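Pasting as-is:
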Amino acid sequence: MAESDGGEDLEAFRREVRGWLEDSLTGDFAAARGLGGPGREHEGHEIRHAWERHLGRAGWTCLGWPAEHGGRDATLEQQVVFFEEYARAGAPHRVGHIGEGLIGPTIIDFGTEAHKRRFLPAIRRGDELWCQGYSEPDAGSDLANVQTRAELVGDEWVIHGQKVWTSLAHVADWCFVVCRTEPGSTRHRGLSYLLVPMRQPGVEVRPIIQATGTGEFNEVFFDGARTARENILGAPGDGWRVAMATLGYERGASTLGQQLLFRRELEAVIEVARRNGAGRDPALRDRLSRAWIELEIMRFNALRTMRSLAAGEPGPEVSIAKLYWSEWHRRLGELAVDVHGAAGMLTEPAPPDRYEPTDAQRLFLFSRADTIYAGSSEIQRNIIAERTLGLPREPRP
């Protein structure tokens, strides 16, 4: 974890961020406040993409990137301040977070100079959006079972296979795809990490309609899709190492911003409990108190995790953090509908052929996925048991 610039400097930075957000979330962008987020990615994509470009022009994207790659070399404390003020301002959920938080740092660490010149500026400006091609029908939490294959034909990789649960693939320009490039290889061996353009023949995106009625997850079919020979990070067959590094960045400073959104959700639930009297119920009051306490613990745990990642020593904290926040968020969804009581069964007005959930219902439904994506709770428990507690490995078929 980088050292703080000092309390006064940090407060000056906070005032700068707050002032810029207040000035910018006006006019056309006033309508973008509060749009987007898990289960709500369908909201205002065009204006949120315009906002992403506005952030990029003003230098408020990629804060933690090195200055030589267009970032600000921001300390961890500065990044936390930015996420705090961003959440407090009700700014829209970022459409470029996969590019900025996942593939950008991966390219910085594993890409060639040509990769950095081609891809990093477009991510920083908010011009190109990315999605993640990891999971498959038979390779979700067991990522090493990837079957999507790619063959080098002349100067291009030709890709065949299927990815699933691909967030925002329907609006993405590029996808980073883990695929098998060595015929006959199994498990972690023979995988490569390719950068693949989405807008081409041979790429088909099919939205998966969720219980919330929206479709931000997708199936992606590659049927002879192509990408240039040089669009590979690391050497052929080195994809597992690169993919694991990307997952490490996924647990980075942006999780603190995620927790501020959690705080806003919890505050909304508490406000409902005050209004409808649910807070007078001892059992519900106890659950609300526990949720608040556990959210504070989550924040301290995240800061500890950031220190490990900044030191280049990711440890069990990464799996502990994922297990903790996903299970907490699922419980918050259950608490939200319980606080609403019988009224929570009612939905928003909508056309007869469409389901429009309330905020509490959406939180309840979408948070069920938190314990599955980005590493299921079962897998995280196995990692903690085997790598931290030294328990015997789970039997494998």
